[in-house]
Amino acid sequence: MGVAFTRAVSPNFSNCELTHLGRAPIEPARAARQHQAYEQAIADAGLKVVRLPALDQHPDGVFVEDTAIILGEHAVITRPGAPSRRPEADNTADALSDRFTVHRLRRGRLDGGDVLRIGDKLYVGQSTRTDCAGIVALANIAGRLGHEVIEVPHDRCLHLKTGATHAGRDSAGRDVVLINPDWIDPGVFDDVFLLPTHPNEAFGANALRVGERLIYPSAYPHTAERLRALGFDVDEVDISELEKAEAGLTCMSLIAEEL
């Protein structure tokens, strides 16, 4: 059975880092309830949910994707772009060390939310949270593990996966990338079918593939219908409170389907 690693919402969640959104009132208790429903959706899709140790003093700790990249039997521990988040990566490294061969980035800045994997290709966003040195450091590790790193500069959203995610294969057998073309250049992707988000749903490009199911935010119904039209089994969940912290579905879990 595959595993999804998550971490609980901090009671200090309202003090999260923000880059592209203005600060709005956040109810940590409501965010925690939405996060639990998100975990249940992952479990319903067939994965075992394993919570990493809680980090109550770290407002962004729930965003575990930023702290590691799972590549088969290997876990690459990142160096988050916000210095306040570096201890989160240390905690993730300790928690994953008994299940994976752990590698650590030693230079630069890199958030896991900027890493989009499609097969053996890793598209890596260069952003306010991820710099060139971090991308080079990842390429040095990932290259030895058989993965090609492709740099994708962007500046209109927090992470690459805020504006583009791999939805999986549609009913025609095509690899589908869900994308907001106003934020991410469609020309960087090779040999995929590009599905644009609905024009009124700018934040609708972040979807989480779990087994045969696509978990998707309920706030973007028009884009959800586009996905269903391609044959995807879409399970919509409400993450509206979490989105106030620039959350996407992918950022709240580390998926290891091979375990």
Automatic annotation (TrEMBL):
Transmembrane segments: none annotated. Keywords: Hydrolase. Gene3D superfamilies: L-arginine/glycine Amidinotransferase, Chain A. Pfam families: ADI (PF02274). InterPro entries: DDAH-like (IPR033199). Belongs to the DDAH family. This is Arginine deiminase family protein. It comes from Sphingomonas arvum.
